[in-house]
Amino acid sequence: MIELYKVLSRKQPHFQAQSKFGFTLIELIVTVAVLAIIVMIATPYILEQLASMEAKRIEGQIKNTLKLAKAESLIRRQDLLVCLSNNGGTCDRDSYKKLLLFLDTNNNNNFDVGVDGLLEEQALEPKYSTLYLRVGNKRHYTKFWGDSGSPRGHFGHIKYCPTSTYNHTMYQISFNQGGGITYKPNASHPTDCGN
Questions:
Q1: Which one of 47, 58, 99, 167 counts the least CB within 10 Å of its CB?
Q2: How far apart are CA 101 and CA 82, in angstroms?
Q3: How far apart are CA 161 and CA 163, in angstroms?
Q4: End-to-end CA distance of the chain
């Protein structure tokens, strides 16, 4: 009996040492369950932050392109067009993938590769929203005139409207007759998104 006790007591430290280097199945299941709960709780917050970052990025891209259009049209003394586009150079009021600034050499109010001069192309590619260009007479573009650098007769705005439950940002960036560019949040100037 004493011999059996000595044998068992010698092997026990060996088993204890091995258990210090690994996880039991229960420990692994509990760890995975806790991580899954943390991810479920954090996901909406992360998506809200990504949507907010997208709204700020697109706001900056639109404002910078409009400012550049105003300055370049005056410097070049040429009429420049700004429009939204989903493909190539076809301008559309309800496009949202790209923002184009170009010199419309053939005066067809669309960007033609190899014909028109592209000054800037902003890849917007929103994931949590869509954009709408609204210019007088239901135009699909706005024109910054070379004699003044302003969108005289082509004033309007670009609306940013959410398409995701995680995005709560709505705004419009307006450009007036004199070429002034103004950010207008939904709280002070309703965008009527969804209408």
A1: 47
A2: 5
A3: 7
A4: 89
